[in-house]
Amino acid sequence: MDGLMMNRPLLQAGLLDYAADSFASAQIVSRRVEGDTHRQSYGQTRARAVQLSLALEEMGIGPEDRVATLAWNGHRHLELYYAVPNIGAVCHTINPRLSAEQLIFIAHHAGDKALFLDLTFLPAVETLKAHLPAMRYVLMTDRAHMPENGLDALCYEDLLDGRATDRDWPQFPETTASGLCYTSGTTGDPKGTLYSHRSNVLHAMSIAVCLGPDLGPQPRILPVVPLFHVNAWGLPFAGPLMGASLIMPGPHLDGESLWQLCEDEGVESAWGVPTIWQGLYTEIRKRDAKPGALRHIVVGGSAMPRSLTEGFEKLGIDVNHAWGMTETSPLGSHGSLPTDKRRLPFAERMALKATQGRRVFGVEMKIVDENGQRQPHDGTAMGGLYVRGNTIADGYFDNEEASRKVIDDEGWFMTGDIASISPDGYLTLRDRAKDLIKSGGEWISSIDVENFALAHDKVAQCAVIAMPHPKWGERPLMVVTPATPDDRPTLDEICEILAPHLARWQFPDDLVFVDEMPMTATGKISKRTLRQRFKNHVPPEPAED
User: Fold this and answer.
1) So which residues are the catalytic ones?
2) Predicted TM-score of the model (pTM)
3) Do 412 and 517 lie in a common domain?
4) Are both 88 and 159 inside the same structural domain?
């Protein structure tokens, strides 16, 4: 029989309502495109979201309509995160770092009815307007900063002006779509992940449960990870649930700007990709001081070099290495250590921090071999990583073909990662399936080679890619951006760094240099671009063991 308990839908409106009622002192602090710093409470954020929701309805936006955003992290973008879904529409965040071709494809595929954009992106959108679907445009600024434009755009603050600041939010099923985020499309066209109110609320709860003890009561969090990329790792929803103050950095994400923002605003926890932390760490070393309150960072998107993790840890900054993807909302695992592991010697703790941590509540994991057979969680066996849970995509928006390819017969989602899982639950990503190098029938993990090589002080960035070889099938080629252009590492120096950790046959056969690594729209090194660039490179014959 069923229990005698009320069954209220899990809607995102409840998160903002809770924060407005319970955390009066928490702030949304925004470094805005206009050049100023703006502050507002969760109560004010809710009031403005109400005003915006009423304006959207007046514009003709209704249930299931897609409303796109092209904006930096700031209070107006956060307001859209609540105003749009809370009337049953879908908030479609667009990554401005995508190519023009991808932006055009995404806007048409999503069927966007409106686009809200920061002033930064006005010139680009004016250029693309003829290729975009017919829709309304809104510039996210006030009347004083409203420029002449070719979009016939509305002014964001004008939309809010004079409207009611309270309402009863509409009620609808918790499975209603609330957000749409497209993959970066490194292979084929971008694919859309369609989140629901239920999935986002449950994801927020998982963050609060798994990371809350490290974050502490009402933390001050800096989301460097963009709101336009996979829900800023869930912070727009988990932040209000925890009563966190969110410090929005706007467009300035260089090490110097982030250091100063952390210092000025008392940031305790900051979330972003490894390239961001490399910039901040360089600034810390330059100043010989960390931001005073900073004690915790969350890193994801790609593997964090162990040397960089150790550098932050020695400064007293706890590094939480997480894993996830657009299709997992995104948090799938977290690197918060349990009490017994925190007592381990430094080297052993760092070994655990080099993994992707343990699964978050609500996410199940399995690894399977090439024949689909489950592999043991013994820390040694490797296989394709599959996940399932209430915050995992069950397919792609309006793309049946792609959906069929990623869900197996048991309903698990295929991540495309090769991984191992230890007996005590620690996930280690060995590589992306497409980035593994098969040499002489044996696998080489490009991630392992890269992470060890990054310990060399002459290496700023590196990537290892597979090159065809007539005898061995594939051999590794290392691509390096040197820390100093005039002081490049040699292949022998790199191999010397690798020697204590890897077998000789896993060493790269050759070393090439680039002034700047090609990057994807989500801040990862684009190995696809590197493979294309060096497709005709002929490495020397590898030494025999």
Assistant:
1) 183, 327, 438, 443
2) 0.88
3) no
4) yes
